[in-house]
């Protein structure tokens, strides 16, 4: 129930608005707190120059004793009441809104504006919601072209994945509907162009390091968001990274993305030539590692305006790109590569990702010697003369008892298995020696 209220009153924007209206009408004593939280969240999105002003305003409004909006703190009875907030009326209104949310969407819901780009199954154009004025991008997928190229399953997967994600670093889906000829995905409008365009078409080729670092961080946040939901992106490349009007970037085109529940691996060949990881090219099993390889290629491309294994405008067969990816060393000839950039790219372009490394079993770069103690002054505690006069009493004993709870179950069980004791005991069991708690104690 608590989660339901949190989702309704905090995370869902309409629920949040309604909750505030409800406070205003019937619980005015909480209004200041609600307003404070709202102002604070606006503040966190404000531009730097307005942030200072907003901060001063928030401090004056909520943190001065004489101010009407002073936050005296929600304590005691009020805090109790907060926990039991439930109002029939508000439930009904929320339900009405949820019904409204389910309304059928058609072309009439939007005004259509200019074309923004072309995709494999149709164009992407700017649209505006008639009754709110909100601008979006609409990716249209031609139904007949989808059928001819057998792209239906992919389109549905893209929609289902887009629906699940909600991140500042991914182009999010607002509506999915269809008309006679097209399936339409209505998404965040990104009108600053894609990174491929910025690398090759604007001014000197390549992107300056300050921007490369900024975009790489946002891309990484987007990839991590997908991975946290067990989704592998599989089409990481500058062309799929779009900029919005403020200059922030997001990942788009989740057409190749795939959900891989824990433990599941795939070996399907998917991606774009030049960005595909060795494990895909060798058709081995893989999970999320392939996105980090492609990020390495993309960072390289932002800096050098070419790919690690394919030069700009080089006419070369995919087989040759594959061969180079698998066999050649990545070289950094462009003057813009500095040491940290080379280092991060080398780490991402790790040819030896394998099932072992996916599950975190990469060989450590340094291993301590078994017979060396790596600590200063190891004999410092050998001398007990300074504590000889300390007597231990019953209270101390009690504390020691509380402390010494014995084996920690998971670690202990692992140890039993790794050391072979488990197998041994199991064998004994077969010989009529049952595994009793006493046996364990003896162990
Ligand atoms: P496909 O999956 O067919 O490759 P994309 O999703 O990559 O289609 O979209 C095709 C092109 O449309 C992109 O390269 C980009 O130029 C433009 N585009 C896609 N999504 C958006 C968006 N949300 N905002 C603005 N332009 C977009
Ligand atoms: Mg695309």
From TrEMBL:
Gene Ontology MF term list: ATP binding; rhodopsin kinase activity
Segments forming domain Protein kinase: 110-367
PROSITE patterns documented for this protein: PROTEIN_KINASE_ATP, PROTEIN_KINASE_DOM, PROTEIN_KINASE_ST, RGS
Membrane-crossing residue ranges in chain numbering: none
A GO CC annotation given for this chain: cytoplasm
Keyword annotations: ATP-binding, Kinase, Nucleotide-binding, Phosphoprotein, Serine/threonine-protein kinase, Transferase
Active-site residues per Swiss-Prot or TrEMBL entry: 235 (proton acceptor)
Pfam families on file: Pkinase
Residues reported to bind ATP: 139
GO biological process, one term: signal transduction
Domain RGS: 12-62
Entry EC no(s): 2.7.11.-
Enzyme class: transferase
Metal-binding found in the keyword field: no
Keyword set includes Disulfide bond: no
Similarity section: Belongs to the protein kinase superfamily. AGC Ser/Thr protein kinase family. GPRK subfamily.
Protein name per its UniProtKB record: G protein-coupled receptor kinase
Taxonomic lineage: Eukaryota, Metazoa, Chordata, Craniata, Vertebrata
């Amino acid at each position: 129930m608590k989660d339901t209220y949190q989702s309704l009153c905090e995370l869902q924007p309409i629920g949040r608005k309604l909750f505030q209206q409800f406070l205003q009408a019937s619980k005015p004593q909480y209004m200041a707190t609600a307003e404070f939280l709202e102002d604070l969240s606006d503040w966190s999105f404000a531009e730097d120059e307005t942030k200072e002003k907003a901060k001063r305003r928030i401090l004056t409004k909520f943190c001065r004793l004489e101010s009407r909006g002073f936050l005296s703190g929600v304590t005691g009875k009020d805090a109790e009441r907060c926990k039991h907030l439930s109002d029939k009326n508000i439930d009904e209104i929320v339900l009405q809104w949820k019904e409204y949310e389910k309304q059928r969407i058609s072309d009439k819901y939007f005004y259509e504006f200019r074309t923004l780009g072309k995709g494999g199954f149709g164009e992407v154009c700017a649209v505006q919601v008639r009754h709110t004025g909100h601008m979006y991008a609409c990716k249209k997928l031609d139904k007949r072209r989808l059928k001819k190229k057998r792209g239906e399953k992919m389109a549905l997967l893209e929609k289902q994945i887009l629906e699940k994600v909600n991140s500042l670093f991914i182009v999010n889906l607002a509506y999915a509907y269809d008309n006679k000829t097209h399936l339409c995905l209505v998404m965040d409008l990104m009108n600053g162009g894609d990174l491929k365009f910025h690398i090759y078409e604007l001014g000197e080729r390549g992107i300056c390091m300050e921007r490369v670092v900024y975009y790489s961080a946002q891309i990484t946040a987007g990839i991590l968001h997908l991975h946290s939901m067990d989704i592998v992106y599989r089409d990481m490349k500058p062309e799929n990274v779009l900029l919005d009007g403020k200059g922030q970037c997001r990942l788009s085109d989740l057409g190749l993305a795939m959900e891989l529940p824990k433990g599941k691996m795939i070996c399907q060949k998917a991606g774009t030539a030049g960005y595909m990881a060795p494990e895909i090219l060798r058709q081995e099993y893989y999970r999320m590692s392939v996105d980090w390889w492609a990020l390495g290629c993309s960072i390289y491309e932002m800096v050098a305006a070419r790919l690690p294994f394919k030069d700009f405008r080089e006419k070369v067969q995919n087989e040759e790109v594959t061969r180079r990816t698998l066999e050649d060393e990545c070289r950094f000839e462009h003057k813009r590569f500095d040491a940290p950039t080379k280092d991060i790219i080398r780490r991402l372009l790790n040819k030896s990702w394998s099932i072992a490394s996916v599950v975190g079993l990469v060989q450590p770069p340094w291993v301590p010697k078994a017979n060396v103690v790596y600590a200063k002054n190891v004999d410092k505690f050998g001398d007990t003369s300074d504590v000889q006069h300390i007597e231990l009493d019953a209270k101390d004993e009690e504390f020691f008892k509380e402390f010494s709870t014995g084996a920690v179950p998971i670690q202990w069980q692992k140890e039993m298995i790794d050391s072979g004791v488990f197998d041994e005991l199991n064998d004994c069991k077969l010989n009529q020696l049952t595994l009793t708690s006493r046996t364990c104690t003896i162990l």
